[in-house]
Amino acid sequence: MYFFYIISINIPLIKLNTPAQHNINDLDSAEIEQIQDLIAERKHSREQLSQLINLEISALAETMDKFLPGFWSRFLENRHQACQEFIQKKRNHQLQVALTADQSAQESTNTDDQQLS
Q1: Do 107 and 75 share a structural domain?
Q2: Domain range enclosing 41
Q3: What's the pTM?
Q4: How many Å apart are CA 28 and CA 32, to the nearest integer?
Q5: Model pLDDT for residues 27-69, shown as the tens digit of each residue
């Protein structure tokens, strides 16, 4: 059984020709409340989209598991491995950035010491 969902999101038009030189203190409480309502709507829409994507993935996985038994478990193993590789690459990159920053700081300190001498 397949389910298809269509989400309708009403996004108000934004006038781009108006100056954006507004201070938050210039806004009255009605405008602030309207902005907060828009933010809440966007968060709700994003949550609904996330739930829809999760539902589609579950339906796809169930269907694929019917055609290829063990598909879902292999998919999860591959996803777990990919996540671990991603995390390791990110840690290596952060370490490389930190080492580069330390080297730059040491070089500038050495340059300053040589100029003082």
Answers
A1: yes
A2: 29-69
A3: 0.42
A4: 6
A5: 678 888 888 899 999 999 999 999 999 899 888 888 888 888 8
